[in-house]
Every structure is written in structure tokens, then in C-alpha cells.
Design goal:
Blueprint: H1 3-6, E1 15-19, H2 23-29, H3 34-55, E2 59-66, H4 74-95, E3 100-102, H5 115-128, E4 134-142, H6 144-157, H7 165-169, E5 182-185, E6 204-206, H8 217-228
Helix pairs in contact: 2-3, 3-4, 4-5
The chain binds 3-methylbut-3-enyl trihydrogen diphosphate (2 copies) and magnesium ion.
One 3-methylbut-3-enyl trihydrogen diphosphate (IPE) is lined by residues 20-25, 41, 64-65, 69, 80, 187.
């Protein structure tokens, strides 16, 4: 099975996510500063966004910056912010005249984020909110626990005393996305790091050892083939 043959295969996930881990180690192995690892990682993210769109997968979530990533050195955080700023400009340039919706999951009210990132993120979400095609969901300043607490607080503000899961989900950043089928976390780390906990309860996980900047088109094909072989039971008895 190659990339071309996989296109629009009904067994593909409808919603896939990348936890783009290993940028720092990729740079370290090459004697480079961590910032160059992030640069290579974001260049690779662009390629994989195209691959996923070309395959006909409907939704793509990307873990770009966690709430906990503020604990990193100031210069690394600042560099990452310049990359997000650039990424948002490129989204605007590349997707505004296409049927692509951008949803940014994460706390865009946080004043630690550069004003330009907050402004561009909100603007892109607004400009693309009526698009019905491919959805890209970069998670920036995202924390799963924080998202759940935010939802609870919004419901309390509305005066709700009791809600069901369907109503609860309407308060998540991901309310307009399809169920999260498949999550790829590169670099060999076997943890979720606060990524989409509510949404991933029945996701299939895949943990390649490859560091994110080296994760190739072939690696993506390999991962998708592995996904297609999984038997998703959702608590029932199948196959
Ligand atoms: C992931 O790569 C990118 C972000 C957190 C933005 P890392 O920076 O975590 O790379 P490692 O894990 O240190 O190698
Ligand atoms: C998870 O990677 C966050 C992102 C990829 C944005 P980390 O490198 O921050 O996760 P930990 O610290 O290893 O759990
Ligand atoms: Mg890491």
C-alpha cells in the first residue's frame, strides 16, 4: 500500500492528531540549537498537513504548545511564539481562498501569548468559521485539564446544575470536530501530556520512536496502515 492508494480509503481515520514531539532531541543529535529543531519540526508539520489533506482525512489536530510548555526557558518560548505567528500568517495566505476551516484550541485570552498571535488566531477562526471542508486544529497554549475546567465554569456561569456529555462537549474547543480516531506521538515518549483527554478516550494511539522532524511521508503511510488493522470495539464484541 502506498500513499496514492490510500487516498480516500474509507478505512482511514476521519480525525487524526499529531503530538509533534522530539524537535529538541533532533537538534541536539546534530549539535544544533533547539530552535533549529523547532524550525525543522514546523517545516515538517506543513508537509504533513498537506499529506493529510491530500489523503482526504477530514480533521487534523496538532499539539503545538501545551500549557506546561511555559516552564521552558524564555528564549525557547519566544522562538516558538515567532513560529506560531508565522504559521498563522501562512495559514491565512494558503487557506483563506480554499474550503479549509482553522480552529485554534487553547487559551487565547492568556496575556503571556504575544498580542499578534492572539489577534491572528481569533481572526483566522472568525474568517474561516463557515467553511465546511478540511479542518485544521492547532492546539496552542492548550491543556486538557484546563479545557475541562473551563467547560465546567462556563456551564456554572450559565446557571446549569446538571448536564449530560452532549451538552458538556459543546463547551470544548473541539465542539465542531469529528471524534478523534487516531493520535500519533513521535519520539518514543509513551504519555499523553495533557492532550485532548476527553476527546481521546476511544482514540487509537501510535508511538513511533522517530523524532518529529524526521517523521516522513512513508512513516505516515506506515502509521495509517497500522491504524487500519486495528479492531476498534468501543466496548462491544466485534470481529
Ligand atoms: C516538541 O518537541 C515541540 C514542542 C513542545 C513545541 P520538544 O521541544 O518537546 O522536543 P524534545 O522532546 O525536547 O526532544
Ligand atoms: C508535548 O510535548 C507538548 C507538545 C508536543 C506541544 P512535551 O515535550 O512538552 O511533553 P513532555 O514534557 O515530554 O511530557
Ligand atoms: Mg518533548
Amino acid at each position: 500500500m502506498n500513499f496514492e492508494k490510500l487516498k480516500n480509503d474509507p478505512r482511514l481515520p476521519q480525525h487524526i492528531a499529531f503530538i509533534i514531539d522530539g524537535n529538541g532531541r533532533w537538534a541536539k543529535h546534530r549539535g544544533l540549537p533547539r530552535s533549529l529543531g523547532h524550525k525543522a519540526g514546523f517545516d515538517n508539520l506543513k508537509k504533513h498537513t498537506e499529506y493529510v489533506e491530500q489523503l482526504g482525512i477530514k480533521n487534523l489536530s496538532l499539539y503545538c504548545f501545551s500549557k506546561e510548555n511555559w516552564n521552558r526557558p524564555k528564549d525557547e518560548v519566544e522562538y516558538l511564539m515567532t513560529l506560531f505567528d508565522q504559521m498563522l500568517d501562512e495559514y491565512k495566505r494558503d487557506y483563506l481562498n480554499k474550503d479549509v476551516r482553522i480552529i485554534i484550541s487553547g487559551d487565547m485570552e492568556d496575556e503571556r501569548l504575544p498580542e499578534s498571535v492572539r489577534k491572528k488566531a481569533k481572526e483566522l477562526m472568525e474568517l474561516t468559521k463557515d467553511k465546511t471542508g478540511f479542518i485544521i486544529n492547532p492546539c496552542i497554549n492548550y491543556g486538557g485539564r484546563q479545557e475541562i475546567v473551563k467547560a465546567v465554569n462556563e456551564l456554572l456561569q450559565e446557571g446549569k446544575k446538571q448536564v449530560d456529555a452532549t451538552e458538556f462537549e459543546k463547551h470544548l474547543y473541539t465542539k465542531d470536530l469529528l471524534p478523534l480516531d487516531f493520535i500519533i506521538r513521535t519520539s518514543g515518549e509513551l504519555r499523553t501530556s495533557n492532550f485532548l483527554p476527553w476527546q481521546s478516550t476511544y482514540s487509537e494511539w501510535y508511538f513511533p520512536k522517530t523524532l518529529w522532524p524526521s517523521f516522513s511521508k512513508k512513516d505516515l503511510v506506515r502509521a495509517l496502515i497500522a491504524y487500519m488493522k486495528r479492531n476498534r470495539r468501543f466496548g462491544a464484541i466485534k470481529g
